Automatic annotation (TrEMBL), chains A, B:
Protein name: DUF1993 domain-containing protein
Pfam families (alphabetical): DUF1993
Species the sequence originates in: Asticcacaulis aquaticus
Keywords: Membrane, Transmembrane, Transmembrane helix
SUPFAM superfamilies: DinB/YfiT-like putative metalloenzymes (SSF109854)
Length: 172, 172
């Protein structure tokens, strides 16, 4: 990350998504190795939660993917590729993240031009939220991306996986 | 957040910091109310952790403040105001966040001009990390800010405080 690109809606968003997914993949690698070393059924790790009414690790990973690919699709006007939440193994979760990265990298940065003022409508189960491209990135995409990466980290850390801040904050 | 500012190092950073601190303050208000309602000594909440070798809630709040004021000081070339980590009550922690906001708002946005290419050296106990202003924001400031806000949320949520995603993702 030593070359500084022009600051625009692309450079304030896409490198953050890619770096977050890269670090999350590294964290998953460590969780998988921990389960193997301790002879823990991987599904115990993948289904671990911080509270009974919070989502398990699996869903945190899927939510990172959804946040990242949704951001790129909406900002660039590209179709959002469907990725059903069917993953149940570390290999499948990492493949989901890789497919997300492949999609992000397939989109021409030029398509993001002017996206900061574009209308973005986010449909949640509860309601529709109206954003501009800019308010969508700073008010939803970035906080939501890191929410799910950090929650994945917290689930693993709380359960004893040997992780440290440096695993979360690795450079690009 | 309906008006879209020009996209630059200021607009990609400062509104994110302010919105994050605002939502964290709201989350702390709910934690304080929960402790009062359940007649729990507030210090039990403030010292709660997700793992014995992770920092307690108190320190998560202080780290959000440090990340935010450090970012504004380094990017704008302003002196970073010292805020010793002496807070032990909800009132003091919320005052710390308010002082952080006051500092952020006191800095002239014009001072951020061109900060994306400025050298930023971050001294950690372990080492010095060299960034540009841009790589500092995307590789450290934003992930670190949300790491500590989300960890504060996770500590409280894990311990039964009635919080939901909407408390974390409130608009600006």
């Amino acid at each position: 990350m030593s070359d500084v690109p022009p600051i625009n809606i692309y450079s304030m968003t896409v490198p953050v998504l890619l770096n977050g997914i890269k670090n999350l993949t590294h964290i998953l690698d460590k969780a998988e190795a921990y389960a193997a070393e301790k002879k823990i059924d991987p599904s115990v790790v993948i289904e671990a939660r911080l509270a009974l009414d919070m989502h398990p690790l699996r869903r945190q990973i899927q939510s990172v993917s959804d946040t990242a690919k949704g951001a790129v699709a909406r900002l660039s006007g590209t179709e959002n590729p469907s990725m059903p939440d069917t993953e149940t193994t570390f290999a499948e979760l990492k493949e989901r993240l890789q497919k997300t990265v492949d999609f992000i990298k397939s989109v021409d940065p030029a398509l993001f031009e002017g996206a900061e003022t574009r209308d973005v409508v986010l449909k949640t189960p509860a309601r529709e939220i109206n954003f501009t491209g800019y308010s969508y990135v700073i008010g939803f995409v970035l906080p939501n991306l890191f929410f799910h990466i950090t929650t994945a980290y917290a689930i693993l850390r709380h359960n004893g996986v040997d992780l440290g801040k440096a695993d979360y904050l690795r450079g690009g």
